[in-house]
Structures are given as structure tokens and as C-alpha cells.
Amino acid sequence: MNRYKQKVDKERKNFWRREQGFTLVEVMAGIVILSVVAMMAMTFFSSSLSYSKINENKTVMVNLARNALVYAEKQDFAAWKQYFVTSNKSEVTGMACLSGSACSQYSFLVPNSSPEVLARVLNPSVNGVKYTVTIRYQKMSSSSAAALPASVANIKNDTNYLLPIVVSVQGPEHQNGMSGTSVEGYITNETIR
């Protein structure tokens, strides 16, 4: 047994003496491979962060659109009907309503609140980012009405009780070619609320 132990000890010592380490080429190849893997990982995390930021911004815009939709739904139906249907105007935009005094052109649409409130609804700022809201009247075309069942088309065309609107929100990245978001809804007559 003693001989066996001596032989193992001798082989172990020889192994460590023969070990020369890594060559410079092997070290450089390892660094290059590690660098490529690190760059790929950084690209993945960078694109994930960008995608997350886009989704966060989209969520904010959807919530702002819903807020503006609820605000419009609670206003006087007759005033909105007169603006959209009788006056044949198609939109209320935040671009024309940057301040309370500039919003006075829309003041008859919101008789129960001040134009400053409408200006804040149409031009909200969230976390220092400014957005622009546009409320558009969705007039039903004859071709789209023909595609719907008659009962549904009659309801959608009946401006005595429902005004179909689309609320669109644009963020600052709209100038960079990125799109905003839209939410559809109805301003309903007070008699059916």
C-alpha cells in the first residue's frame, strides 16, 4: 500500500510540474468570445429596455385617452351634438387649446367646468412628458353602415342619443414617427345615462 501511495504522490507532483498554463493565444481567444457574448447580452437588455419604455408610454396614453373619454361623456350632450352634428365640426383638439384662454372657443362644450380644466384634459403632462389629446366625431359613412346589420346601423346613426367619438393621444415621440393611441366611445344623451 505504501508503494501505491508513493506512486500517486509522484504522479501528482509530475502533473503540476508539467502544467504550463494558458498560452497568450488561448487567453486572447477567451477574451474575444467573452466580449462577443457580453455584447449580445447588452444588445438584448438594451432592446428590452426600449420595448419596455414604449409599452409604458402606450399604457400612459391609453389611460389619458380613457380619462378624456370619461370627461367628454359627462358633459352636456346637446352642446356636443350641436358642435359635431349641427355645426358640422369634426374634432376638439388640444393643439388649439394650449391654455385656458385659448380653450374659450370650446367653453360652451363644458358649461359645468372651466376652460382651464378642458385645457388640462386636452394637454396633459405626466412625469414631465406632454401629450396632446384630440376628440374626433366618428360620422358613420354609408359604406360602413351598409356592412352592419340594419338595427346596429340605425343605433349608430341615431345622433339623438349617441355621438360616436374617437379619442386620440399623441406623445412627444409622434414627431419621431412613432404613433399614438386611440380609444373609441360614445357621448350619450342624459336621458339614457
TrEMBL record:
Pfam families: N_methyl (PF07963). Signal peptide: none annotated. GO terms for biological process: establishment of competence for transformation. Keywords: Competence, Membrane, Transmembrane, Transmembrane helix. The chain crosses the membrane at residues 21-45. Its main location: other. InterPro entries: N_methyl_site, Pilin-like. This is Prepilin-type N-terminal cleavage/methylation domain-containing protein. It is found in: Cell surface. GO terms for cellular component: cell surface.
